[in-house]
Fold:
Amino acid sequence: MANMPESTPSGVFSVVDYAVFSAILLVSAVIGLYHACTGGHQRTTQEIFVGDRQMKFLPVGFSLLASWMSAVTLLGTPSECYSHGTMFWLISGSYIFVTLIAAHLYIPVFYRLGLTSVYEYLQLRFSHAAKLIGALAFIFHMIVYMSVVLYAPALAINAVTGFSIWKSILTVGLVCIFYTTLGGIKAVVWTDVFQTLVMFAGLLAVIIQGSIVFGGFQNIWQINQEGGRIVFNEFGFDPTIRHSLWSLVIGGTFTFLGNYGCNQLSVQRYLSCPSERDAKRVLYVNCPLLFIILSLTMMCGLVMYAMYGKCDPILAEYIGRADQLLPYYVVNELGFFSGLAGLFIGCIFSGSLSTVSSGMNSLAAVTLEDVLPKKRFSEKTAALVSKFLACTYGLLCVGLAYLAGYMGPVLEVALKLMGIIGGPLLGLFTLGLFFPCANNKGALVGVFTSFAISTWIAIGAFLYPTPRPGLLTTLDDCVLSNVTYTAFPDDNSTYMEGTSLSSLLSSTAEAPKATTHPVLASLYSVSYLWYSVISMLAVLIVGLITSLITGGNKDVDPSLLSPVVNCLCSCSFRRSGHKLQRLEDLDMMDVDTGSYWKRTPVNMDTHL
Structure:
């Protein structure tokens, strides 16, 4: 419907836009200052990391959503819908399974132990080495993920305002460092609530404006249906299919279970609640919010296809990559309405601020609890060290974010990371929670094998990529005027005189070159959504076999097992003569069991 505009208002950011954008940043900073000056003034690690375990479940539920639904989602999901259709929408089915499994099989164990770092569980269940592996893998995962998340809004800001990507990354990072270091988890949670509302507002602005232009969202749906974008019928069992019902629901379940079931960023939020019931409610608040934000981002993708499906800015080389589609849309369709461009940039900023601030706080907690030598700091010193660690991780991610542009589409990169690193860790926790016979040797051999397999597949997929072309878009409606047209700001920007775009592209196109693939190329073609499943199964299979060969485990503490395992196996424990030793009976200085740390009493009266 819409032709390519004759000029691009890139760099045009009105006073109102700046005011809206600045207000969003200012509110986040003020929240950090408020929590630094109230309550316990962030003088203890318990207040900094878990809010003295007195946080309300509703804001924590919003915070959990914001922590994982970053700018990666806000930019990547609309471009996914634009390029590949609506099939990705079915990943919402995995949210239900993740919520039920995490709430009733994983959270009860971690909450009742009164942990600060979830990786302390690995020391209690297996060994100090297992804990260190889990903690270091989490640190690596979050640093890379946060770098991707920082890069995404920088891309958007560069498009709309003309700010350099580096300055944008620095701005996001410094704001995060400021309020996270000052306000701790309380500032993180309440800024997440505010930023979630900003994200909803920004996405709704895109959808509402598009609906007005096309005379209702039903017309947008019709255009997408005619263009082949409404796709919900991929039911094939082939694991190389990028998005099928099975990869989205089953693969998505295990991918997100690694995030919501045993990732420090999420578990730290559950542990900040005053009761186990409230910890579970956090997930039940998060689940419908996940579906809402997924639906809003997919609808934004439908709006963009209705606008640009017959004049594709990627084919026309006005933008360099699909992740720029939503910023490009805002530049050309919302940029003329004062304040909306500022709201959109605030929306994208909010997605990154929430994730990066949560990651900084969690990284500081894990490093202090699990990595630094166990020379006990005074409470005052520990609080200062935690703030220094949060600041250091923030600066490190700012530096690494500049490299994120070379990693590929932001959504797929983020989900691949979850599978490569989150999958083995999910397998390690699952081995400990659900298999009493698993021992330390099995856990270590299993997790190393899993890391090796997932990394091997990921590297193979990078070296021998499988072509996965998107759905058809055209240049049929693209008409350039005789004046010079300046393309969207990008390293690949070009200047064109009045010319037929179709003839220009066809004259410069080259035939694809044949690539020789190794025998195992089919394994490298497996959908990234199966990475977590493969990684977790590798830990379980190798870990159990190794455990059985090395004598299994005869001293199992039932408080370290999932409730369902205790329910099913309590009788077999008694019959087999296994020694059931409660954690409170252990020597608090026994480093081999990991029980030298202090566990904070928690409210068990209200757990389900």
